[in-house]
Amino acid sequence: MTLIAAAGGDRVAYVTLTEIEWEQVQRVWDLLEEGNTERARIELGPLLEKRPGHADLRIVDAAVSLDEGEAERALRALAGAERSADPALFFHLRGAVQYELGRFDRARADAERALAVRPDSANTHDLLGRILDHLGDEAGAREHREEAQALDPEDFPAPLEVPDEEFDRLVEKSVSELPPRVREHLNELPVMVEPLPRHEIIASEQPPLSPDILGLFVGRDMLERRHDDLPAGPGAIFLFRKNLLRVCRDREELANEVRITVQHEVGHLLGLDEDDLEQWGLA
After folding, report:
1. In this predicted model, what pLDDT tens digit does every residue of 129-167 receive, in sequence order?
2. Superfamily of domain 2-151
3. Where are the transmembrane segments (predicted)?
4. What mean pLDDT is predicted for residues 92-100?
5. Which helix (H) or strand (E) element contains residue 11?
6. Which of 3, 39, 216, 248 has the greatest number of CB atoms lying within 10 Å of its CB?
7. Residue 217, CB-side half-sphere exposure with 13 Å CA sphere
8. How far apart are CA 50 and CA 72, in angstroms?
9. Residue 27 has pLDDT above 60, yes or no
10. What CATH class is the domain 164-277?
């Protein structure tokens, strides 16, 4: 079927996908839902070759790119996808991409547009809640988190609430349980807890770091340092409390996630790769 749509006064042909192509698109979405991003990219390839630039396929391409951690590529894919069959999904995805790029004002505008089209989207309420958290609107963030929970309590349960002092004790315990030869490297390195990564931290790398990161080591790792280096700050390990609380459903899971995050960031301090972590007692 070919539909004719007006765009800026021009008449633009929009050719819908066939029933078989829609089934193939659904297969890609199912693979993303299962966490099989690599297979989703493979399955999407022939469709993109057959229908280059198709608005509905641009939407799927953006979703796969976002799951691959390629936010800039996702944004490029969305250019020209405004005429897709699902405008709410278009605005949601573009808002999610802008969020990953640390462009929170733009992300908020797109998330609000998505909710104007589909006000019962739990995913978009959750996204807008995270955006508003970074914009400092705690009341608005809470409102949208609660709406997401009401719409889909299984996927968006109420965030774990733990007093700051209790959270700090979990971090201190995780540090104290590190192997002695690892702890000695932390004597001059602060382990800091912050609510969320600040904008300057997110923008410190290109592409930007995800606003949802759980922890981060900032500084030069031990393998990069030399004996004749000029004196400089040792750096720091950051843990981001709100992000950690959001991904954990109970205190036991939180304690485990804090321990894993501390170990992971200490591994970055030491310049270790994943294979070295177990050797140092950090796996």
Report:
1. 999 999 999 999 999 999 999 999 999 998 899 999 999
2. Tetratricopeptide repeat domain (1.25.40.10)
3. none
4. 98
5. strand 10-15
6. 216
7. 19
8. 23
9. yes
10. alpha beta
